[in-house]
Design a protein that fits this description.
Helix content: 25-40%
Strand content: 15-25%
Shape: globular
Low-confidence stretches: none
Mean pLDDT: 89
Distance between the termini: 49 Å
């Protein structure tokens, strides 16, 4: 039986075109024909604005078609009399669990859905027990959701949907804000629900490794379905995926790149283990001791210290029942011009640390020195500090508020009391650095794509000409194209200006490409602070503390474990291809 059946599904809404001064229709979905059998696990991919979330909302009847029809569990979503039956059949989990959790106790939150369906109290208790057990959160039933990690909160959100006993769960980027351990927790739960409970899963994601686990991958572009096949067949079309502004798993990309060098490897490889087995079956040259392997050596950039943290400790909720030590005895030195990658599991202290560097939080003990000055010791120094240390929060587009892009970027310099000529120079320079030309100056920031909005928000901080730029997950929730767009801007800006950059990210692949050194936080303390190679060669340790190394690092590490003589501190596809090309048969 088909659980979802859409026929020529069209959805339009009206947008205001500022240039033309009139409202115009925009077609978000343009003739979607899709059937999903009951019990199937499908992954939906597409760049931001391709129509993924719009289609997902139709499954849950949050919106209804402009034209065409969509049946969910045999019910027409446009039939208002079936609305609650549809939503009970198809539950929805959104990207940010904080937007879904409303109660102060976990079990009360899970019970909220069944209560609103009018389920008897005794049955609700059974459903809550079942849901919490299914997502392995029984021990937290009386905990406050606010004290849980991101992955745990998302599992509670899934439990809340499960308690309504749906036959289908739609998950709209449920792991976008989670660390690697949290992502594994959520995806393991989703796989279990599908394989053991037979629940139909529709997973929208920008993580190709997650999509590779599905039975089927559907790719959307401009409101249409442009690919619909098994993960192996979809991801083997590397060039087509790239043309759609999407990625493929690193294991697949490695096989593709090696085949371009003339090797005959299986292009349908999706996972780390598949890649390792394929390389081993292909075979390696017998004696590799004499081969001069290409290496991209990395060294710690020495220089003048710009930020020094000494014995920093911070405690939230001091002397209360919720007291928690967020940072403990943190000691670090960051040099001028460095690009620092900051990683750690959810709750490791990353965000607390960077807010100390900008003076938004004061330490309970210890010091933060910028250019040798204790930022909390000199009265009235914070205004000057924030001009030197710029902080761009996660989802920086929420910081945009002016009517035009030019005015938004000019806001900071204006508040610094600069002349009009100097403000103009800074605005133009900042927008140029993030790749936004003059044609954007008079546009509304709210007309832009997600990646463009973030570049404008970063330009607003750059216009204040800081010596240090701190970015908290600037690529979170963006598709691969938007992610590369924003990170390329940051990399280019770092090289041109020579300023110090601190990038917080849950993407090990992004950090590996950009950083000079990586600061690893674990449970409020510094776990490692070293070069990219020296951090990622400890992939097993990273896994133990809730993180992960790039797929390529793990592949090379596993080959080393199999006795293959090759460097084990490799973390990019390009370097792996250069090395493997020399030693494969």
């Amino acid at each position: 039986m088909d659980f979802i059946n859409s026929q020529n599904l069209i959805y339009e809404y009206t947008v205001y075109n500022e240039e033309k001064g009139e409202s115009q229709p925009f077609r978000a979905l343009n003739g979607i024909n899709l059937t999903v059998p009951e019990g199937q696990f499908i992954a939906v991919l597409g760049h931001n604005g391709s129509g993924k979330s719009t289609f997902a909302k139709h499954i849950n009847a949050l919106i209804t078609p402009t034209d065409g029809v969509i049946y969910v569990n045999g019910m027409d979503t446009a039939d208002e009399s079936k609305l609650w039956d549809i939503r009970q059949s198809a539950g929805m989990v959104f990207q940010n669990p904080d937007n879904q959790i409303i109660a102060t106790i976990v079990e009360e939150d899970v019970a909220f859905g069944p209560e609103n369906l009018g389920i008897p109290s005794q049955e609700i208790r059974k459903r809550v027990d079942f849901a919490l057990k299914t997502v392995s959160m029984e021990e937290f039933r009386r905990s406050a959701p606010s004290l849980l990690s991101g992955g745990q909160k998302q599992r509670i959100a899934i439990a809340g949907v499960l308690a309504m006993k749906p036959r289908c769960i739609v998950l709209d980027e449920p792991t976008a804000m989670l660390d690697p351990a949290g992502r594994r927790e959520v995806i393991d739960t989703v796989m279990q629900l599908n394989r053991q409970e037979g629940i139909t899963i529709v997973l929208i994601t920008h993580y190709m490794e997650e999509a590779a686990l599905a039975d089927r991958v559907v790719v959307m572009e401009k409101g249409r379905i442009v690919m619909d096949d098994s993960p192996e067949k979809v991801f083997s079309q590397v060039e087509k995926m790239k043309s759609l502004h999407l990625d493929v798993p690193q294991a697949t990309e490695l096989m593709y790149a090696l085949n371009k060098r003339g090797f005959n490897l299986n292009g349908n490889v999706l996972t780390i283990d598949e890649a390792v087995n394929e390389l081993l079956s292909h075979g390696f040259k017998g004696d590799m001791n004499d081969i001069d392997l290409p290496r991209n050596e990395q060294h710690h950039k020495s220089g003048e210290t710009i930020i020094e943290v000494r014995r920093l400790t911070h405690i939230y909720g001091k002397k209360s029942a919720f007291e928690k030590t967020a940072l403990y005895n943190v000691n670090i030195k960051i040099n001028k011009g460095e690009f620092i990658g900051l990683i750690g599991h959810t709750g490791s202290g990353k965000s607390t640390l960077i807010q100390h560097l900008n003076g938004l939080i004061k330490p309970d003990s210890g010091q933060v020195l910028v250019n040798g000055t204790d930022i909390n010791a000199v009265r009235g120094s914070l205004k000057n500090l924030r001009q030197k240390v710029g902080l761009v929060f996660q989802y920086p587009e929420y910081q945009l508020f002016e009517s035009t892009i030019y005015r938004d970027v000019a806001f900071g310099p204006k508040n610094m009391g600069l002349s009009e000529d100097e403000i103009d120079r800074r605005v133009r320079s900042a927008l140029k650095l993030v790749g936004m030309g003059e044609e954007y100056y008079e546009k509304s920031p709210f007309e832009l794509s997600g990646g463009q909005k973030r570049r404008v928000a970063i330009a607003g901080v750059l216009a204040m000409e800081p010596e240090v730029l701190i970015l908290d997950e600037p690529a979170a929730g963006l598709d691969p194209y938007g992610r590369d767009e924003i990170l390329s801007s940051i990399q280019s800006m770092h090289k041109k200006l020579g300023i110090t950059v601190i990038l917080v990210s849950h993407s090990m692949e992004d950090i590996s490409r950009l950083a000079d050194r990586i600061l690893v936080m674990n449970r409020g303390s510094v776990d490692m602070f070293d070069t990219v190679k020296d951090v990622f060669k400890r992939s097993k340790h990273l896994n133990e503390i809730g993180l992960a190394a790039p797929q390529i690092s793990v592949i090379m590490d596993k080959l080393c474990d199999k006795g293959i003589m090759l460097p084990c501190d490799v973390y990019t596809v390009d370097e792996a291809v250069d090395i493997l090309s020399l030693i494969l048969r």
